[in-house]
Amino acid sequence: MSSAITFIGMDLGTFRTSAVSSNGHQEELETVVGWPKDHIAESLLGKKVVFGSEVIDNRMSLDYVRPFGHGVLKFNSHTERGMDENLVEKHRKAARLLVEQVVSLVEPNRQGPIYGVVGMPSRATLVNKEMVIEATRGAFDAVMLVPEPFAVAYSANRLTETLVVDIGAGTIDLCPMFGTFPNDDDQLTIPFGGDQVDEELYNCIVEAWPDARISKKMVREIKEKHGFVGPSEDRVIVSLPVKGKPTEIDITEPLKHACGKLLPPIIECVVELVARFEPEFQDCLLNNILLGGGGSQLKGLPDQLEIALQAYGGGNVRRTHDSVFAGATGALKLAMGMPLEYWSKLDQSKALGKLQPAADQ
Predict the structure, then answer these.
(1) Neighbours of 318 (CB within 10 A)
(2) Per-residue pLDDT at 354
(3) Pick from 243, 173, 160: which is nearest to 209 by CA?
């Protein structure tokens, strides 16, 4: 295989985008793009476009968007989100800039072709896939889109008799693995994820302590550090400014309530999906559940899922080895494992966006 070729696996997440390259580089970047509001902000920042955590740190002087927030572009239609065409175009532009930035961070060999595999929600529509393909133009010479949980399974070598549940910020994706590329009808996507948990926690805190000041960024950090599902012996105490005075607040119950919102839809969809298969396969799936994505890191989640699934004859629930890079690593393995002729045909025809690997390739 030519050393001039760079293969890249990318997990284009709603909150965080990660990429792994065949040259050994791996990078992650918060999925947010910003533009200085005026020439003063541009002069201070020293750049026309800002990415990742730098956007959040300087958000008061930036006009910024999360291009895939709430599943926009990747899963939901813009009409469902109440977005006009101007705002949609802004998200599309941000997506293109973000992909280009992430690709540049892994330092591909610009003297040769760049081929990539990018993860998508399991039941993304053709329109959503075309939008993501458009975002990759200019960054890749050829790209293939695959379901995000499939990439997680590929990374973990769990390609048979496994049910992958990928819990992202915008969606939860479920994909059963039986040793072949999954059919669309065998997968499920739930339009609910970490973003909705954050919103619920934020609203609970504001309602319970109306004089406290808290930002969405603080809420996410609290969830990532303390989030749990089920019972907990520890209290979660945080310090928030109340009328300007730092005050310790016990947010254990609001946090439990908000994080617990993830559990019912996951259980409901696991049961619905598993019921589609013959009994012997149902048992295999229920006892081999692999959690991926940032939401998989909530304390107690695997245990609570196992308890809930006991009524259905399951289950055995484990987390993936790396919630940040598992999807990107699996995508890279898939990219490097495809025959070079496959990529060459896509490259030569400029047919970016082969939606899934054909079984006979």
Answers:
(1) 15
(2) 41
(3) 243
Burial class of 342 by CB neighbour count within 10 A (0 to 12, 13 to 18, 19+):
middle
Please, what are the domains in the chain? Answer: 6-153+324-349 (3.30.420.40), 194-260 (3.30.420.40)
For the chain, helix (H) and strand (E) counts, in that order, are: 13, 15
**pTM for the whole thing?**
0.89
Q: What share of the chain is helix, strand, coil (3-state, %, to 5)?
A: 45, 25, 35
**Which tokens go with 201?**
């926690």
For residues 114-129, one letter each, b for 16 or more C-beta atoms within 10 angstroms of the residue's C-beta and e for the rest, the string is: bbbbbbbbbbbeeebb
Determine the Cα angle at 127 with ends 123 and 128, to 5°. Answer: 55
Predicted confidence (pLDDT) per residue in 2-46, tens digit: 669 999 999 998 999 999 999 999 999 999 999 999 999 999 999
> Residue 57 pLDDT > 90, yes or no?
yes
Least reliable range by pLDDT among 56-65, 66-75, 246-255: 66-75
- CA torsion 222-223-229-230 (nearest 10°) is 20
Q: Where are the alpha helices (DSSP H) in the chain?
A: 39-45, 53-57, 85-105, 126-136, 148-156, 194-208, 216-226, 252-260, 263-274, 279-286, 301-309, 326-337, 340-349
| 84 exposure class (CB count in 10 Å sphere: 0-12, 13-18, 19+) | exposed
Residue 157 has pLDDT above 50, yes or no: yes
Q: What is the CA radius of gyration of the chain?
A: 21
Predicted local confidence at residue 82, as pLDDT: 58
Instruction: Output the CA torsion sign for 285, 286, 289, 293.
Output: positive
Give pLDDT tens digits for 101-152: 999 999 999 999 999 999 988 777 778 888 889 999 889 999 999 999 999 9
